[in-house]
Amino acid sequence: MTDETTSPLPSSPARARRRFDPAVAIAFGCILLLLLAGSFYSRNFLSPDYLLQQLKVAAFLGIIATGMMDVILIGQIDLSVPWVVTTGAMAACAVNSYGPAGAVLAVPFGVLCGAAIGAVNGLAVGYMRVPSMIVTLATNAVAQGLMVVYTGGFSPQDSASPFMRTLATGNLIPGVPNGVLVWGAIAALAVFVLRRTTFGRSLYAIGNRERAAYLSGINTRRIAMLAFVISGALSALAGVLLAGYASKASQSMGDAYLLPAIAAVVLGGTHVLGGKGSYLGTIAGVILITLLQSILSVMQMEEAGRQLIYGFVIIGMLLLYGRQKAAQ
Amino acid sequence: MSLDTTETKVAPKRGMSILFSLTLLGLLLFLWLLLAFSTNSFWTPNNISNLLRQGAMTAILAVGQTFVIITAGIDLSVGMILTLTNCLASWVLAGTGFELAFGVMGVLGAGLLCGMLNGLIVVFGRLQPIVATIATSAIFYGLALLLRPTPGGSINEDLADFFTSKLFGLVPASLAFLALVVLLVWIPYSRSVLGRTAYAIGSAEQAAYMSSMPVRKAKFAAYAISGFMAGIGGLYLTFFSYTGEAALASGNAYTLFSIAAIVLGGVSLAGGRGSAIGAVFGALAFRAIGDLLFVFDLDPLWQPLFQGVVLILAIAIGSIGFARVRNRLEWFQ
Fold first, then answer.
1. What letter does residue A324 receive in the DSSP assignment?
2. In sequence order, what are the beta bridge partners of A176?
3. Rounded Cα gap, residues B218 and B212, in angstroms
4. Domain count for chain B
5. Which of A9, A86, B186, B204 is the most exposed place for a label (fewest CB within 10 A)?
């Protein structure tokens, strides 16, 4: 098969149309609009300090959304994000309490725990054909149960390792937070994998028509499994970074990330049923969501109002361009 | 292109589903007996009413969820509708007489409205049910927080006590109420045109549309009823707790329980198969399994883990059927 036929963006007119993907354009337009609206409220909104601070906060969501995107691309969904994030954070902090060796192993161990939960999800979805929304809800419950048993229902006393703190809050390059660098590296990798590797192309193929993908020799089960492992690992990595940011893990620290992650991916123009979407859109979605949250908190909106506006904005934007085709 | 979307799923023989229901009923009775003989506290009225209360709440939610799952959709906002109606009920159920009657109708109406909002967004907005209902649950949670920023409120205790009492000193009111819901809502619905259409949508939406069945009406009705049932659940929760509380964790837990009950109750998650009666037994069994922990004298901290593991096992058992498929292509329908 030639490059031309397997590519998700085949002919040049299609490629040109994709360059002006309305969803990505609308998302970036909304970002500008939000910044403009914010700058009327306070001059600080356009200062580089504020924008960098937003990017730093966006990095956590961005890392989670990357994993969520590869799962949504194959037409599935990962609802286990909240407690995978928490598990990653708690596992890393727990290992850190075992002396110097623990401090070194903290980050890999946290990520590995997330990957393990992702593997269970992938096994069930890929090999046992269980609907992903059900099985990921169940693994979320199991992860929650494990953490409740482990911590006794309280916030654990273990603290984050110095490396985790540096990873989340330090500045390796002056002026650029390390968290943003981590997200940048993951973003670059994601773009490469999605566009230039068989795995990435297979994600799009499965999302478009799983049957055809299977018949053309793609090992659809293994790809689905891998997608969930990646999603679990990235969620856990975000949890590890969050623990570094707050210098410790806490109960329900991941609860605030499920809806934003899905919303960021979908607002960025990735089709909810899979098969279509670009990473640029996901970046736009992540920044859009983060800015929205930031503006609401700057306006000192109560939690109730924030949830309301949040729900309405997501539904409103989805109604603008996330609709399915009418039955025919 | 349209060939494989119009294929219908192979329905199991009727005998099989009856056999399944009997197995589930047997399992439930076995669990209850096990609980009864291994603990001293089981027979105390307090424990029985507690068991039935939690079981009935989950069962009511699960009946609502069944309506949606049969159409191959999902309603992840039931827990938050329950939380919202609970908070609303803690404001409006304080009076007596007509005030109280209007209060009850208001709470049920609020649940129905929430469900209708879901239905509007999913059916006429044509959004994916998962994403749409996650987003609306943020809205419902926000409203619940507006109503009850801190837990509190008080309600007419006579009414609450009636629903937690035993009818004629024998049948717990919660069980009678549950039976009434199944009789008045599920049985007429599943025999109506809308109910049949819901099953048809679940097994082959394209074919249902082609046969000019009222596809959109049936989907809308499914979400609306699911919201209404969650409203009943919220009302019921208030009768037991006397107060309203907007808690994120308990709302999410109720959503999870409603889905766990369905998985245990043999309702096909791909749509088109199953009944609310199975879901009711599933809900009661799920709560009974949760209580098994007390038999083994384990710390209540283990309960969430235990429930999660039970759910995973139920999913695994339910998916064994896929291993017997003759042609792997059947996986990808």
1. P
2. A173
3. 12
4. 1
5. A9
Task: Say which residues have a Cβ less than 8 Å from residue B227's Cβ, sequence separation at least 6.
Answer: B64, B75, B77, B78, B81, B111, B112, B113, B114, B115, B116, B117, B118, B119
Contacts with B138 from chain A: Cβ below 8 Å: 259, 307-308, 310-311, 314
- Comparing CA positions, the residue from B109, B72, B55 lying closest to residue B230 is B109
Q: Please answer yes or no on whether B141 and A128 come within 8 Å at the CB atom.
A: no
CA distance B23 to B295: 22
B11 secondary structure, DSSP code: P
CA separation for the pair A147, A150 (Å, rounded): 5
CB–CB contact B269 A302 (8 Å): no
Q: How many CA atoms are closer than 13 Å to the CA of A105, on its beta-carbon side?
A: 13
| C-alpha pair distances (Å), B181 with each of B62, B64, B83, B285 | 12, 10, 20, 18
Tokens linked to B118:
């879901």
Partners of B308 on chain A (C-beta within 8 Å) are 138-139, 141-145
- Measured between CB atoms, does A320 come within 8 Å of chain B? no
Q: Are B109 and B220 in contact, with CB atoms under 8 Å apart?
A: no
ipTM above 0.90, yes or no: no
Q: Is B232 exposed, middle or buried (0-12, 13-18, 19+ CB in 10 A)?
A: buried
Provide the shortest C-alpha distance from residue B147 to chain A (in Å). Answer: 9
Collect all residues with Cβ–Cβ distance below 8 Å to B32 and sequence separation of at least 6.
B288
Per-residue pLDDT at A265 exceeds 60? yes
Specify the pTM. 0.87
Q: Is A77 on the interface with B (CB under 8 A)?
A: yes
Q: What is the pLDDT of residue B321?
A: 63
Domain range for A232: 60-314
Cα dihedral B118→B123→B127→B133 (10° resolution): 20
CATH classification of the domain holding B131: 1.10.3470
Q: What is the DSSP string of A45-70?
A: GGSHHHHHHHHHHHHHHHHHHHHHHH
Which residues constitute the domain of residue B252?
42-318
**Could you tell me if residue B333 is inside a domain?**
no
| Distance (Å, whole) CA A76 – CA A97 | 37
**Beta bridge partners of residue A248, listed in sequence order:** A159
For chain A, what is the domain count? 1
pLDDT in tens, A14-36: 555 555 677 888 888 888 888 88
Q: Are A160 and A96 in contact (CB under 8 A)?
A: yes
